[in-house]
Write a structure and sequence with these properties.
3 domains; 13% strand; single chain; 257 residues; DNA polymerase, domain 1; Ubiquitin-like (UB roll); alpha+beta; binds FE2/S2 (inorganic) cluster
Amino acid sequence: MTKDTRLTDAEMRARALSRWEGEGGALAPPGAADSIDESELRITGFTSSGRLTMTSLHVTRRELLELAAATGGALLGAQLLPGAAPPAAAQSTGASPARLDVALRVNRTAHRLTLDPRTTLLDALREHLHLTGSKKGCGLGQCGACTVLMDGKRVKSCLSLAALAEEREITTIEGLARGEELHPLQVAFIERDAFQCGYCTSGQIMAGVACINEGHAGSPEEIREWMSGNLCRCGAYDHIVAAIQDAVAASGSVRGG
Ligand code: FES
Ligand code: FES
């Protein structure tokens, strides 16, 4: 009998957290990292016509994988939208879904894009708006390199559909500074040498800003817990924790500014 090698959500969270607690900096293999609870949708099932039904603003990694398995692996932006073909119809014709006009508000600037409805927020930012500070690491919600803020809350943009980010205020690393004045956490990252290759850094900073604003930066242990969704191949975790503590001290509050 084949051994079940799947990890529970609790096990995945524990493994991600262990990296912040000094058990190595290498990225976890697929399936071994954190669950995703910051993203867009909660999928509740299919209608008889094959349409998705969903509520609220959360999708777990398990739900996303189940969804991909149920639909042959295609991202399902098209089915989330009024008038789109159900999965069976889309697969049988092989046709690309009609492109959508999408209005995005990014870093206090409004943009109008025409996108394939399956375009992720990360690809819209990087490929269409040329905001390449947000990085694509795993593309699976495991590493956090793509973290941006949506209405002030952190989301993994590789798992968020651009079409569902309309009417939301998106903040990327490019929008964190005010003119020439860096955000206190950006300053702290530089002063604490909180990066090596820098690939994870924009995601770490955006997650760190949210961590502070959420009030989850009261101690090193709390910071490690609430930053455990962001991985660093270079193992700069101690420096990142120190930088977040510095930013908290600079703002005079665990809630930051
Ligand atoms: S979580 Fe790894 S690229 Fe989005
Ligand atoms: S991955 Fe290199 S600094 Fe984090």
